[in-house]
Amino acid sequence: MCFFSQNGTKKSWDCMQTHDSVSVLIFNTTSHCFILVKQFRPAVYMTEWERSKPKPLQPAEEESAEAAPAEPKVPEDDKAGEASEGTSSHQPPASAGVTYELCAGLVDKPNLSLEEIARQEVLEECGYDVSVTKLRKITSYRSGVGVTGSKQTMFYAEVSEENRVGEGGGKPQEGELIEVVKVPLHEAMTFAFDESIPKTMGVIFSFIWFHSNMSPKYKISTNV
Fold first, then answer.
1. Residue 198: exposed, middle, or buried by beta-carbon count in 10 A (0-12, 13-18, 19+)?
2. Bias category Basic and acidic residues: which stretches (predicted)?
3. 98-101/150-159 β-pairing
């Protein structure tokens, strides 16, 4: 909680201190696809769970429900396949908390540059060994401005199958469970604006950046 005065009015705000971060848009020049990561995010899952809960009955609906005859209780043995006692029947599947993201990581190693941290994340999460000299800075911006105010720096990296030295997937010993995902270049913009695919704003922004800055150079169509 932080306290401040704005235009003579005393205010308080819930804040959380966290590390800055880096993210990397990875483009595979061999297969002409973007390399993203997919992982479970508890905060996203809890939001979807809250959204799926039944809405409270309005007064008129409550009166109607009270007037309706009670449903006969079915023995537990006859409820095979239904939610067990103590388990909410509206609980969404785990897939509701999975999101598509750029390869990214926290800036928590003071002895390393942003480029070196980005290089490590590409290697650990996606399995590609990229030289720091091959990382191109796209821009930096504030993320989580309502709570953390941390800064994220975004890079662009081109890789090929020759750079692939592992499967990626993060560090299991640190609790990471990451799936590497390929998005074909010709499907990128459709993917970016498909609201049924849960993704971060970084994915959308970086795909648009690529379309504006790299597609003309390489004369590549992004199906826009």
1. middle
2. 73-82
3. unpaired
Distance CA 37, CA 39 (A): 7
Segment 140-181, tens digit of pLDDT: 998 877 777 789 999 999 999 999 998 888 776 666 678 999
Please tell me whether the overall predicted TM-score, pTM, comes out greater than 0.85 for this model: no
First to last CA, the chain: 45
Phi and psi angles of residue 187, each rounded to the nearest 5 degrees, phi first: -105, 0
Reading phi first (left if > 0) and then psi (alpha if -120 to 50, else beta), residue 175 is in left
Domains of the chain: 19-48+94-217 (3.90.79.10)
Helical spans, DSSP H, in 9-138: 42-52, 59-67, 114-121
State the DSSP code for 128. Answer: B
Q: How many CB atoms lie within 10 A of CB 79?
A: 11
In angstroms, rounded to a whole number, what is the distance separating the alpha carbons of residues 153 and 141? 7
pLDDT in tens, 45-102: 998 888 888 877 666 655 665 666 555 444 454 443 444 444 455 788 888 999 999 9
